[in-house]
Amino acid sequence: MRIAITGANGQLGRALQQRLGGEHDVVALGHTELELDAPACVAQLVRTRAELIIHPAAYTNVDGCARDPDHAFRVNGLGTQYVALACQQLNAPLVYISTNEVFDGTGGPYFEYDRASPINAYGRSKWAGEQAVRELLQRFYIVRVAWLFGGERNFVRTILRLAAERDQLALVADEVGSPTYAPDVAAGIAQLIAQPFYGTYHLVNEGSCSRYEFAAEIIRQVGYSERVTLAPIALADYKRDSVVPPHTPLRNLAAAALGIRLRPWQNALADYLSQIR
Ligand SMILES: NC(=O)c1ccc[n+]([C@@H]2O[C@H](COP(=O)([O-])OP(=O)(O)OC[C@H]3O[C@@H](n4cnc5c(N)ncnc54)[C@H](OP(=O)(O)O)[C@@H]3O)[C@@H](O)[C@H]2O)c1
């Protein structure tokens, strides 16, 4: 199948290229090849003659979205509308990558059918993208992921860098989510697109933890536990530009019904650490 991938040089974009490249004819569109903040991207996507588009490209800087919500909406909301319009013209299904941050974080763990209620500009812009997909297309997979690691810039890399520099780290203990390994999501998407069960999915590694527990597991797996001490802090005391939904573990019910489950996040983390060290 001919598959166009947006944001092809991002964390998930790269994992998708690797996972799908052998089996499919992949058209990889990085930010330099495809600008979503311009209606011309519709015609450009149509010219790829893709039979399926996978759309992980997004403005993913959550604090940046809070500082410039218009840009967030143009890229994540309108940009996704453009991708959906291209799919309409191509008569091709769309895989849109969405986020745990469409939920307000007061009632997790969240199932695929739970009501979205985003509380920050990033979440609202990604939810706008979901709505555009649902309004414009009949054949789509909306795949929500969370706390992604797998590329160069993510929480795991940050903790490794800080732990190499310091003996004490302060970590938020009351923000809870589902750490998720990008190559595992890519493998799940490969299974998903092989069957026409369109709809909304949560593809996250099994289990959940706080930022503090996530960091503790990273430190433990790399053998720094003796040297590096972790201090728990409250989300309310961690000053940043965006508000954060505090409790957003995702439950995979819909993909599991198709036999698609991602392994426990601790095992995926061990795999990632062995790749990068
Ligand atoms: N990372 C997470 O923890 C997380 C959690 C939940 C959901 N998600 C969702 O998962 C998806 C993949 O995340 P990721 O971590 O792989 O993101 P990423 O590494 O930030 O990759 C996103 C890609 O989109 C590109 N992009 C940004 N603005 C663009 C624009 N205006 N036009 C075209 N391309 C643009 C970026 O290019 P430049 O870098 O060159 O701008 C980047 O290569 C996203 O849709 C995100 O919302 C991520």
How would you characterize the overall build of this protein?
This protein is α/β, with parallel strands linked by helices. It has one domain: NAD(P)-binding Rossmann-like Domain (Rossmann fold, 3-Layer(aba) Sandwich). 40% of the residues lie in helices and 19% in strands. It has ten helices and 14 strands. The strands form five sheets. The protein has a six-stranded parallel β-sheet, with helices on both faces. Strands 6-9 form a two-stranded parallel ribbon. Helix 1 links the parallel strand 1 and strand 2. Helix 1 crosses helix 7 and helix 2 packs parallel to helix 4. The longest helix has 22 residues. The protein binds NADP nicotinamide-adenine-dinucleotide phosphate. The site of NADP nicotinamide-adenine-dinucleotide phosphate (NAP) has 26 residues, from helix 1 and strand 4.
Chart the SSEs and their pairings:
Elements: E1 2-6, H1 11-20, E2 25-29, H2 41-47, E3 52-55, H3 62-67, H4 69-90, E4 94-99, H5 121-136, E5 140-145, E6 148-149, H6 155-165, E7 168-172, E8 176-177, E9 180-181, H7 182-192, E10 199-202, E11 205-206, E12 209-210, H8 211-221, E13 229-233, H9 254-257, E14 262-264, H10 265-276
Parallel strand pairs: 1-2, 1-3, 3-4, 4-5, 5-10, 6-9, 7-13, 11-14
Antiparallel strand pairs: 8-12
Bound molecules: NADP nicotinamide-adenine-dinucleotide phosphate.
The site of NADP nicotinamide-adenine-dinucleotide phosphate has 26 residues, from helix 1 and strand 4.
